[in-house]
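Running low. Got one?
___
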Amino acid sequence: MRFAVLLLIACLSAPVLSAQHSVPSGGQWLIEPGKHSGFVRLTIHYGERRYSDSWNSQDDLPLAQLVGLSAVDMGGSGTTVHFKIVRPAGTLVCEGWFDDGKGSGHFAYQPNPAFVAELAKRDISAPTAWEQFSMTMTGVGLDLVDELQRQGYNRPTAKELERMGTHGADLEYLRDIGARGYHLKDAESLVRMRDHGVDPEFIESLDSAGYRSLGVEDLVRLRDHGVDGDYIADMKEVGYAPSNPEDLVESRDHGVDPSYITSLKEAGYEHLSLQELRRARDHGVTRAFIHRVKERGYSNPSLDEVIRLRDRGLD
């Protein structure tokens, strides 16, 4: 079960703003039943009113991760509870009450000095108090640090580890990406891919379409511009499989898709290059317009002629 999280404020990703936040000594927690038996949905609120922040479990958490809380406690009526949320970087000591599966209360935050000592053993400087709190909330652990080393990444800083946590570039994501041959060397590239939605499923769709071992920027551009395995497969079906991914990005951006290509083929324009297709699309050349051109007495006009007529306003 991954510790993927959603932090609901942008300041966690902005170093300048993080200095404005004091590390909370405590806050409020809210627990609701999860979608499956033995799982819960956890929400944490903390900070001063002016800088009130929230953390939500993006996936349901196993009840077993809440040390000292049982299903019996949750099912009680007005039951007082005491439990801990233990993470590598720190612990939230919680108390409150439950009624019919839903509970709320307060927590006290306790940073874990042993975590800082273990980072030092790995030649990573001590995190700031805020960075350690953030890593507590997102579940960043030493297993993430060790996996980065195993995959040959540069040694991360504490700030980079915090960014990985707040952006969801967690241990599971790191392993999934690595298993598909992507060892990016630096943590920031991993965060960039995660931010742009480059997930294992997207990479797998590209692999299946024959586009493997792409660079980080290629993956990000393809994802940002809607070029996925389905689009590539459909383009291949109508005869277009460029070796350069940028050709696919430009074609997608210009609205050149399999249906448009097929419509021009049906109008008699086959074997056009992607550049010609993009130019035709940009100038508003459609199958219906080509049909009107031919009705006006133009016999088998070239694509350039059709474009000129379109630009001159022939209708």
Observations:
- The two ends are 60 Å apart (CA to CA).
- The chain is about 45% helix and 20% strand.
